[in-house]
TrEMBL record:
Species, as recorded: Persicimonas caeni
Gene Ontology cellular component list: cytoplasm; extracellular space; membrane
EC numbers, comma separated: 3.4.11.-
Cofactors required: Zn(2+)
Name of the protein described by the UniProt record: Aminopeptidase
Amino acid sequence: MNLAFNRWRCSPARRTLLGFFAPSCQFPIPARNGIQPTNCKNFAHSSPLAFMKRIALILCSATLITTGCATPPETGEKAVDTKMAAAQIEPFDGDERLSDTAVPTHYRLSLELDPAEETFSGTASITVELAEATDRIDLHAKDLDIERVWVNVGKAKYEAKVVEGKNGGVTVALDEPIGPSKLQAKTALVFEYTAPLDEKPHGLYRVKDGDDWYAFTQFQPLSAREAFPSFDEPRFKTPFDVRITVPDGQKAFANTPTSSVTEEGDRVVYDYASTEPLPTYLVAFAAGPLEVLEAPKDAIPGVPLRVITTKGKSKLAKYALDVAPALLKAQTDYFGMELPYAKIDMVAVPNFWAGAMENVGLVTFRERLLLVDPDNATPGDKYALQSVMAHEFAHMWFGNYVTPAWWNDIWLNEAFATWMATRTLAEVAPELEPRIDAVKGSLRVMSADALAHARAIRQPIRDGGDVMNAFDGITYTKGRAVLQMFESWLGEEDFRDGVRAHLEANAHGNGTTKELLSAWQEVSGKPVEQTIRQFLDQPGTPLVELDYKCEAGKTTVQLEQSRYLPAGSTADHGEPWHIPMCIKYEADGKVVRTCEVLDAPKKTLTLAGDTCPAWIHPNADEAGYYHWKLPGDHFVALAKDYRDALSMPEKVALLPHAKALVEAHGLAYGDYLKLVEHMAREDHRVIVGQVIDALYGIDEHAVDETNRAQFTAWAKKIIDPHVNRLGFAPKDGEPAEDGLLRPKVIRAAADLANDTKVIEQAKGVAKEYLQDPTSVSIPQAKLALRIAAWSGDEALWKKLRAAITKAPTPSARVATIGALGSFRSPELVKQSLELLLTDAIRSQDAWTLMGPTLGEPETREVAWSWLEQNYDALVEKVGAKSATSLPWVGSAFCSKARKDQVEAFFSKEERKVKGMERNLGQALESIDRCVRYREYMAEDARAFLEDI
Ligand SMILES: [Zn+2]
């Protein structure tokens, strides 16, 4: 799953920063005060629960339900009697782990689905192997209205009852045990049920697009149980045989190619080939009046490739088909094997919880990600599509082919897919420099990793809330950084060969962390398990302090490690890490590196060479996951005098490391500002972005009416050269990095440097676009709309409101919604927020509108009080699953009083949901950090501005 567009967990970012290419926290979105949240999921949301409506029982489908056919029990009595059974047994709690008493070996699913209806119906026949005689079988079913259930054992049928437990757990209770003598017979649980088909984007849900309704699925992590009764844990991998019946004229898709399509009166019955063994969370369906665009035959040899869209949108699907084959080819080469599945369909879903989801054969995407018109899209849109697509394709091996046995190992999916996406893009689209963005991401997640409430990559899972929280920046981005570090340490070949051995050993099955580490250990002969253990199992980032002395040409280096913590933190220090690290230095006129595992709190090294080094860098190419510190003023000297000797990853890491040292009171803020001035001379897009972020930080915390003029002049001096170089409009043939940087520079020019020329240009472009959306290129419109909204009036608001439905592409639609959240007038902000509770804004886009209102100091208060008044309605819209992350909106604040208010608000019993506690803790801790940071830096910042 890719969470690039699921942003409820991001600290609200400054308005101008939100629209920077992929608005994702895996991509570069600076948090307001530089203190980063654990990640950036984007959560989705949806609309009111549809009424449960019972529909006719499903007819027996003898051809499909061959396991005894879906014939009701011979008694013909309704088998569900929850009250009676509940008195006799303690039903299964879905938060517990399932036992091995019954292990599923095969599913047959038959769904009757009309997306225009508010319910659907299904028959599920699950073949199981029983380990012992039993009169109860536990499994999952959530919000399903199970009409009938029985158990076929060979030719015999046993009546059964379903007893509903907590958290999506149910127990099938039998009147008598299915005895040991019957264990050899084929045993199948058969359920007939109906279920709500509502608009909350998890489980099987529906979306209205234009005049038509469609149905899609999002099952990971715990929502397959909302679509069919299931043993909904990743360790149970079985083949699935699926049938979907839809109204005539509609199409239906599932994980495998169709085996037959049959018209039955006013309905069409789709049967699909048996799947390879899948966990329930990878099963997927799509139905409705969908369009299909196919890639040329053998675009991917032997694998049909298509994009599926809602009506009228397949014309936007070509770019996705064009870029997919090269991404997949890079990965099949890496793994040394072909794709282990029969097809790739990529579905553009108009309302989607995550960024994308790696369902086998039916990969689902937010449509704004997948439907990119190459002639009318920003470089950021193209980058995001390739990055997310590479991530999902990587899951075909990491997660799909070999699946974690339990959610505590989800890093085996998400860290690997994130790492592999970076690797794939570096090979296929090196001009995008994904490795530089990965370094930036690592430094960003270190900030979240410094929280006392941070998770470990392999955090124990206690309940469904922990499962949801496992999909965060620690798993994805820290996971990628740790893998990167281990690849550097093991060597690319040993790393790859270990991965291949692991995949081969667990083909179509489950794999564990322990097995993977053993594979690496065997291939490399290195002590992998003991070296990686702390990085996986304890939270936090190491800080390596390096000191050295040089006498008679011999240099002795003293290394000392501890947990990096901001000043005032009460977090545990944890155990010392085993840190694979390489030191880089200049000796005898040459740049040399020496590598070591720092496996003790302190260690002393002697450097090679007979002269004192001109400089030392403690993390060559920033390949290691740790902060570092040099003695005295060596840090500033490295950045000021020896920057040209550093590699780009090393340069990109300078400002974030310096910021971290400031927060730990290891570097004076004044020195940090000097560093900002030095780095402002660089023109790499990532460094320019960091300098602009630093300006926003100063603006937020230290600028008022007394020094606004000095600040604006300083900001202008820094930003102007980039504005002049890049311009408002793209130039023909310009490098990708210019297109990636432009939005950030132009918005900063308008916002921080009060560049009236840029502001007027933006207003002009916005006016043209709103008169005729086809008259302006989408990249220009996206750039202009938000800037225009900052000073916009009611008339502009109305035009933007009307423009949502007229947007020529999904990306333009999102930009329009973002602009509606960017007004500064409290009245207009309130008006925009009210739209969240209407059909004008889909639940997936709620954060796009709300984020800017919280990120901007002028509108933050209005947004918070709107949230307080409309919280229940918002949760109803976005879904209870997203409520887990809603405390993050409070992290926009930077005062003790507001912290208390946020805490009181989210601590109310009626607002508590599982998993919220950790997010609330993180958000409150972020506010504390911001308060301390502001106290520490404000005086230096003001003094600096006075001297300008
Ligand atoms: Zn993923």
